[in-house]
Specification:
This protein is α/β, with parallel strands linked by helices and about 350 residues long. It has 4 helices and 39 strands.
């Protein structure tokens, strides 16, 4: 794909400075920008590269004031650099190969229902009673279980499993090896110390416009539903246990874990490797720093938590500042004790 800088400026509604005919063939990182690339500056710590990059064009914020001449042939000013990059990557990503039509090496049960424009790759399995919405793209080696529902405009990457009776809304993206609807972790202790499996007869519901990262697992409910609400974004390697609910537009970084029946509010931001005990509720707009452990309900909206067990962010920083000084404080206390009790 080749496109002129002036075309990109028009597409993004940006203003152009420099050579509008500069030819762009691919996007690239600002520190690695070479001939024919388009790169961007969104973080001030990378500004020095704006003056040395060999990229054909550079995207910057509308109010960017360079301290010396920019090296790129074309400078494109936009209102929001990150959103402009998103649009560009969508444009350049259109050329990626994907399945078209239904492969003759896929298995589609005669009682499955495929809407118009569904594509299914080789060695995928669509079981009895499953329903796939219009325009959904299913890559190779995907499994869709009995009675499962997949909405329109979804993308299921290789190795995805959506087990029986689970429901996926419209415009959802499931990255490679996501598992939707595996059994919840439920076992009844017996008098002899052994455990017997508790049947998990519920399902998982994903609402619309959700993206789930690679190797993330979402367990089916024991009864009822495990629910991921509209617009949620989950990173890779996240564990969501049975009967959890994650509220609208919450984002969660990699390796976080949610124990059973926990309810996460709307618009929360959760860092990597954060953990949540079961059967608690977390208020809307909560921010949880990476590696924090949330062990109690969070009732106040908009709080930031840090630590394990998690406490308010500023309290944690003050406590940590003291913690680092404990050896020195202990030494001073012992010296004082010797003076008091020689």
């Amino acid at each position: 794909m080749q496109i002129a800088a002036k075309e990109i400026a028009n597409m993004l509604g940006g203003s152009l400075e420099g050579d509008g005919d500069a030819v762009i063939s691919k996007p690239g990182k600002i520190e690695e920008g070479g001939a024919g690339t388009l790169t961007f500056l969104a973080n001030p710590k990378y500004e020095s590269f704006a003056y040395t990059t060999e990229a054909a064009a550079l995207l910057v914020q509308k109010d960017f004031q360079p301290s010396m001449p920019v090296a790129a042939k074309a400078l494109i000013r936009v209102e929001d650099v990150y959103d402009a990059v998103r649009k560009l990557l969508e444009k350049f990503g259109e050329e990626r190969e994907s399945p078209t039509g239904v492969s003759d090496k896929a298995f589609v049960h005669p009682d499955a229902v495929l809407a118009a424009g569904v594509s299914i790759g080789v060695f995928s399995v669509i079981e009895e009673g499953a329903r796939i919405g219009a325009g959904t793209l299913i890559y190779p080696q995907v499994f869709i279980g009995k009675g499962a529902i997949i909405g329109k405009g979804c993308v299921l990457h290789p190795g995805v499993k959506v087990f029986h009776a689970c429901e996926i809304g419209d415009n959802c993206i499931l990255q490679a090896n996501v598992v939707i609807g595996s059994d919840g972790f439920g076992f009844a202790p017996q008098q002899d110390g052994s455990y017997k499996k508790i049947p998990q007869i519920g399902n998982v519901i994903l609402e619309d416009n959700i993206e789930i990262g690679a190797n993330t697992t979402i367990d089916r409910a024991t009864m009822g539903s495990t629910v991921i609400r509209q617009g949620v974004k989950l990173d890779n390697l996240i564990m969501v246990a049975h009967n959890v609910e994650i509220g609208d537009h919450t984002v969660v970084a990699a390796q976080a874990g949610f124990a059973g029946s926990t309810k996460i509010g709307r618009y929360c931001r959760i860092g990597g490797q954060a953990g949540f005990v079961g059967h608690i509720s977390v208020a809307d707009h909560t921010q949880v720093q990476a590696q924090s452990g949330v062990a109690a309900p969070v009732k106040e909206k908009g709080v930031a938590l840090y630590g394990s067990p998690a406490i308010p962010y500023k309290d944690y920083l003050r406590s940590y500042a003291v913690f680092k000084k404990l050896p020195d404080l202990l030494r001073k206390i012992r010296e004082l004790e010797k003076k008091i009790n020689p």
